Amino acid sequence: MITLTSNAVRELKRMMEKDGKAGQALRIGVKGGGCSGLSYVMNFDAGGPKEWDEVFDFDGLKVFVDKKSYLYVNGMEVEYSTELPDVGFKFRNPNAAGSCGCGTSFSV
Asked: Fewer CB in 10 Å around end: N or C, the chain?
């Protein structure tokens, strides 16, 4: 299971509306790279879920996570902070053994 806080859902819906992508889903994934070895990836997805995706719904916002990425993000909470100087999305991942200073890459 992953969790998106109400602030994260609100900000994602605002971004989608602003970018003309209302009604699309959010795809969360993990890729190799970043200063800690793995990086989080978030993109809007106009298509439906793939057969291997985990699918979540947060107040009407669909979230897709591919099975491989899900191994690394299961249990993660995504928050959106509006407090300076840390404005942006924050990933609280219990699977991460370490992370970089910016919080967008991690190691296991």
From this structure: N
Domain count, the chain: 1
Residue 5 CA to residue 24 CA, distance in Å, equals 18
Q: How many CB atoms lie within 10 A of CB 83?
A: 6
Give the residue carrying structure tokens 């997805």: 45
pLDDT in tens, 80-89: 999 988 899 9
- Bridge partners (DSSP) of residue 25 are 45
- Residue 13 CA, chain-centre distance (Å), reads 13
CATH number, domain with residue 73: 2.60.300.12
Close Cβ partners of 55 (under 8 Å, ≥ 6 residues apart): 49, 62, 63, 64
- List, for residues 14-65, the tens digit of each pLDDT value: 999 999 999 999 999 999 876 668 899 999 999 999 999 999 999 999 999 9
